[in-house]
Design brief:
Uridine Diphospho-n-acetylenolpyruvylglucosamine Reductase, domain 3, 27% strand, 21 strands, globular, single chain, 5-stranded antiparallel β-sheet, Uridine Diphospho-n-acetylenolpyruvylglucosamine Reductase, domain 1, 29% helix
Length: 306
């Protein structure tokens, strides 16, 4: 299949400027450090290059997007079609604008946005310090932590759809709900966002972020090979509480384990496969359902062939 994609790229995308790799291992690019290769891994040079690629790629070729590699399990059999990874200066800008606004590329880590905003005296975005991953993923899942959600400071976003059209999205277009941008078409790849806050004291904001950092270090296994929070919180409850009540803290499957520190985190203890991690997650879901009748929903994406 990679050979066919190579011929397709050569024939239909002669002016492509970004980097194209075939049968490229994805595990080193993910926080879990597991998973098979991408049939084609594309890193666009800029927004226009991404639009050109999507416009000329046949619509039957599957496309997946990744950011910093958190919040995703790439399965052991690899990913058919294309994996797009945003990187480089074109997607890593972080600029303070008038009106206590900040314009950021989709590849910028959430924590960096919080830090730049704080340094500029922009309040209301410190919660981003506690979210693993980059802004592109935060937009797609309305990521949140420490009492804040992506939607709270959101002004607008720019994205490229599967036909290569560059589009702008307002808050109403995004349709933000808990852990989802329900109104945004699934084929859109976000490339930039604008957030707004309110006047704040840089010293106070720095202290807020320090407190968030200390809390994360004390309660979450951030130094382990993990993907972040595994399951969405059930209505009126916390995922970790129902997992703990079902006796799953420390539960193991192969090289995967439910974290002892925070049991809504799955960790790769060193030699886990993607199947171990996903299988452990399904075992947790089954035990919680049997214990409390609650059906946990995955927050972490699972992509590719088993």
């Amino acid at each position: 299949m990679a050979g066919e994609l190579a011929k397709l790229v050569e024939a239909r995308l002669p002016d492509l400027r970004g980097r194209v790799l075939f049968n490229e291992p994805l595990a080193p690019l993910t926080w879990f450090r597991v998973g098979g290769p991408a049939e084609l891994l594309f890193t666009p040079a800029d927004v226009e290059d991404l639009a050109y690629f999507l416009k000329n790629l046949p619509t039957e070729v599957p496309v997946h997007v990744m950011g910093l590699g958190s919040n995703t399990i790439f399965r052991d059999g690899g990913v058919e079609g294309v994996v797009i990874r945003l990187g480089g200066k074109a997607f890593a800008h972080c600029e303070v604008e008038p009106g206590h606004q900040i314009r950021v590329g989709a590849a910028v880590p959430d924590a960096k946005v919080a830090r730049v905003a704080a340094d500029a005296g922009i309040g209301g975005l410190s919660f981003l310090r506690g979210i693993p991953g980059a802004i592109g993923g935060a937009l797609r899942m309305n990521a949140g932590a420490h009492g804040g959600e992506t939607k709270d400071g959101f002004v607008s976003a720019k994205g490229v759809d599967r036909l290569g059209h560059i589009r702008t999205f307002t808050s109403a277009d995004m349709g933000f709900v808990y852990r989802n941008a329900a109104g945004a078409p699934l084929d859109v790849i976000f490339v930039e966002a604008v957030f707004a806050g309110q006047p704040g004291d840089p010293a106070v904001l720095a202290a807020e972020m320090e407190e968030i950092t200390k809390k994360r270090e004390a309660t979450q296994p951030i130094k382990e090979k993990t993907g972040g929070s595994t399951f969405k919180n059930p209505p009126g409850n916390s995922a970790w509480k129902v997992i703990d009540a079902a006796g799953c803290r420390g539960l193991r499957k192969g090289g995967a384990q439910v974290s002892e520190m925070h049991c809504n985190f799955l960790i790769n203890t060193g030699d886990a496969t993607a199947a171990d991690i996903e299988g452990l997650g399904e075992e947790v879901r089954a035990r919680v359902k049997a214990h409390s009748g609650i059906e946990l929903q995955w927050e972490i994406k699972r992509v590719g062939k088993a």
